[in-house]
Give the backbone structure.
Amino acid sequence: MAVLRVLRISALALLITGLMWLSQQVGRAQGNEPVPGTSWALGVLSLLFFVGAVVTEGTRGREATVQKDLLWGAAAGGVLSILSRL
């Protein structure tokens, strides 16, 4: 079961990172400059997802495993997106 959770979290994190990279490439191809403050916005969203994941992990039972994995994956994906922008 733990392996399945790690796979779900990793897949979502990589999906979010890949979509952010694709979005940046499309914007550059169209001649648009990156929006200032995007990394800060991603950081705040990642922090909110992280807090939600910690709270959900502590308060919800096994029935919310997929919800927990989505929150962890979104938090990790946001952090990876920020790191890939550096």
